[in-house]
Fold this sequence. Notes:
This protein is an alpha+beta fold. The chain is 25% helix and 39% strand. The strands form 2 sheets. Strands 3-2-1-9-10 form a 5-stranded antiparallel sheet, with no helix packed on it. Strands 4, 5, 6, 7 and 8 form a 5-stranded antiparallel sheet that branches.
Amino acid sequence: MKRIFKYITILMTLTILIGVAAALFYGTKTVHDLLGDNKKLKAAITSLTHEDQIGFAKVLRQEERDGKLYTTLKFVETARGDMLTKVLEKEYEIEGDVVHFDTLIITFSDQAVMDGKARSLYLWRRIYGEYMNPSEGYPIETYGRSPERYTGLLRDLRQPDQQLFWEAIWDLANDPSALRQHGIKAVYGNAVYKSLRPGLIYVFKIGADGHVYPETVLDM
């Protein structure tokens, strides 16, 4: 009985030590370590395909209050490869009718992928009106987290590595060239704005140059 208890104690001690070692390792691991030679990450980035539609917006109502016009709109982000599936849906009220849709475009050069063809990620940052400072805009995706649109993209990576990757990607909003040595850079698309009207749907698409633009269609 004493021998069994001893074995259990040793096993528990080893388990604790392994856990502590793992915590220390991932606590000191940087995104540069992750991007340096992670074949699973490169495979995930390589799996990205060209995207055409990445979301749409529509006016729910426009009304005047105290002499000011307010626009209530619904913003929808659609799934990769399936423009009919919604992965995010939010409502916003903006003063005025001119609304800015702020995106962060992350490009991966052939250095970061396996087949030598560039790839991109498209992250929705915030929405703001013409009477607001961009920094006061309403968030769309949650800063630092894996966007719903890319759920499962990094499924082959350990959870700490996934978190490390997305935090680094979002940080490119503050330092667009921070990961350039790994073939990754940020391009802003925050000049996307429209004067919104009821009865129309504003579909956001990606041009050949990688920038986002709205296409207006009738709301059937």
